[in-house]
Automatic annotation (TrEMBL):
Signal sequence, renumbered to the chain: none
Domain PLAT: 533-641
UniProt cross-references to PANTHER family, sorted A to Z: DENN DOMAIN-CONTAINING PROTEIN 5B (PTHR46070:SF3), PINSTRIPE, ISOFORM A (PTHR46070)
Record keyword Membrane present: yes
Keywords from the UniProt entry: Guanine-nucleotide releasing factor, Membrane, Repeat
A GO term from the CC aspect: membrane
The keyword S-adenosyl-L-methionine is annotated on this UniProt entry: no
Originating species: Oncorhynchus kisutch
Domain RUN as annotated: residue spans: 713-860
Family assignment from sequence similarity: Belongs to the RAB6IP1 family.
Annotated protein name in UniProt: DENN domain containing 5B
Gene transcribed to yield this protein: DENND5B
CDD domains (alphabetical): PLAT_RAB6IP1 (cd01757)
UniProt cross-references to PROSITE patterns, sorted A to Z: DENN (PS50211), PLAT (PS50095), RUN (PS50826)
Amino acid sequence: MTVAEGITTLLFPFQWQHIYLPLLPAPLHHLLDAPVPFLMGIQRRDGAQRSTLELSNESNLCFVDIDNHRVDPPEDLPLFPDQLELIQEVNEVLLRFGLQPYGGSTTTKPAPAAPPCLSSLVLEDLMEDRRNGNLGGEELAVLERLQALARRCGGGGMAGGKTLGRAFEEEEEELKAAKMNVQLREVFAGRFTSMFGRYEEFVIHSASDLESWLGNREGTSNFDKGSFLSAQPTTHLHFLSRFLETAMFSSFVDSKVLSRWADQEPLQRVFDRRLERERLYNTLEDDPGNRLYRKCTVLHESVQAMERRLLKADHTAIHPHLLDMRIGQGRHQQGCFPRLQADVLAQGHHTNKWSSRYIPKRPVTTETTSGLDNDQREKFSPGRILCQSKLLDPSPSAVTQTQRGFVEGLLRECRVKTRHMLMERMGKESVELGQGEANITGLQENRLIHSLCDLLERTWGHGLQLKQGRSALWSHLLHYQANEEKMESPSNLYKPYAFLLCEEEREQFLFHLLSLNTVDYLCFTRKFTSISIPYRVVITPMKKLSIAMTMSNPWVCVSGELGDSGVRQIPKNTQEIIFQCQNLGRLSTLQLGQENSGLLAKCLVDCVIVHNEITGHTYRFPCGRWLGKGVGDGSLERVLIGQLVSPGGEEDSGRWTGTPPEQGSPPQSGRTGSLGSLSRKLSSAQVQEDTREAVNNLVKHFHKAEQERGNLTALLCGEGGLVRSLEQFLLHGFKSSRLFQRSVFIWDFVEKVVVSMETADQMGDLRESTELCDSLCHYANAINASPRNIGKEGKFQLLVCLGVRDRLLPQWLHLLAECHLTAVQYEKSALVRDRAAVHTLSRVLHTLHEFPIALETALVKGVDL
């Protein structure tokens, strides 16, 4: 019981919100099946080991063996922030009071007892009170002689065989324990003050009145968890992300919001005053993200405050005195309790002249909100399923009612959690490729998923007949796998009151879980990096043009944030392949190619779809270009940029039936790298705006926290990326002398400029900087010499990416604009011939020089630069 009380005391300013039974009686052992957090004390009998306890949800339990001084935490329990420093500070406090860590004690000799102080005054006070004492003069004289004799003998005997010195030693030990208790509480309170010193800045006050807040409490968030976590040190995130999901933190924040309309919680009032004092003395860190461990500095002051409280009397007791009664009324036989006088007891309180000596006690707040009616209190009740009195009733009807309450609580928790997960994730799928603002991080995803896994574990562990492993859910899945055809009935595996045997609640539970299929979570993909995952790849040709798909030994290579799959050959006469490899993480690029088998092997590819068979994530890699010799830009290999398909989206309909779904073909004019109608239709203002937006997206990418960043390759090479915008800039105003001609690519113009520079350099007519010209020629020739046949579009894309990485792109842009071929190839209204436009674009590109840009291997493979 002392350990349980100590744990709840050290939680200040938070309060334990769940089942609390410091000593669990034997008739109530069924409460160990409770699918809710609990704090219970179990008595060890006859040296029994912990393994003899049949607990269904053991994987989520923390065992504290008090006798053996051992703590057995759950496997995934995060470390407390600055745990080693905190342990060291606690040990220092224990050593100051003569206690060794881990339950030992010092061997130092105790200090000699001080002279009797309080206890020795008892007889003296009694003897000096001759006027009011009930004893006569003779009896008092006897007491005086007894006390004098005790002083001469040095005994100072008291009742029960204890001496006055021993009694004083016990009082000193109690005072010492009280001082240690205060200092330990201050150490932990200091840690919570450091972690949550600025929590008020992240509290969301979304309601204008109490009724609207109570009515929309489940659908609104009262605390900005994402912003709070982003301001914390990286080493603290694992613990804090889990702690923010606890009921006691939610109740703490709710109480803060509620304090606008009702009295503030006593503990929260004390905590807020402590924070005000910390701010007054400027002891709170201005930058929580770089917080250093700071030991508690008020240990001595806290002990002094406690001693002052002990010296201040809470109650002034009166000396023994004669009652105001008639002579003879107080007589009684020796050893018998005297008969009470009715007329004395009937006197009112107003006649008590000693009432003014009592110090009024502070009223104890039993509800979290004073001043609220019963309905409002019921709405505000922070998730306690059953009151403590019902839990302690061992009758069968009470046990059934208790378990029924657990079932209803699990269903309610499932509804709230799934709704919260949907609200957190809805509308955020568009930021996965780095476009837009990311409001949810991978850490927050892990927090939400862990909370759901904890709920599932408690649900499957409720009412389990026999524990078959640390995880009840995993044991159930293994049992199902081994006995899929002859699986034992759930009624034989679970007790009658188990959640899984409540048909209606089970159906609603599954309905809430299925609602999560409408959003995507990537935490599994990021977390389990070594797991083997099957991927399905489907190549979709452009069917609207009725062109048969003729490819010679096609192959794919899928790349993600954790690696690539290597080259995977697609079987003949098929459009798809299923392969298994180590988890690739979130997919980013896909290389699609074929062998050089002549002009007949060509195909107009609409897109390539990759499906993760375990997580269900689908990625679409748009193409819309030819693959083959003598057609398009003559590419035999394409590097495609992936897009995560939203669940339930148009591309996701009917997956997966073995045949690729019908895809809407993007307009051919929308393809980049060639002179088309789109480049002519775009105005110069639109082209410049697209370029500025592409660069701005890259700048915002690097200014975000690392865990919030999207896919850099998509910002460079995807739709709306930097490569696309620069192609639009260079295609603007490009001359076309014939109505019917082969597509003109920017790479053709770059090659002509390179040849012109090399010729001018040989003849000594080069007017530009030799170093810059040499760099452009060197990069262009290296790309042309690459063994990869990536086509003209791919070559220009690679040139732009290398120029951004090596901080050469703005200088190359000036070279292209100043070349004499530009006046021949471009109209006068072209942007590349506008010195102001070129200068502005160069300044915009210069903003990328301060960021380190790392290119994926799929982009630069085969080029040694």
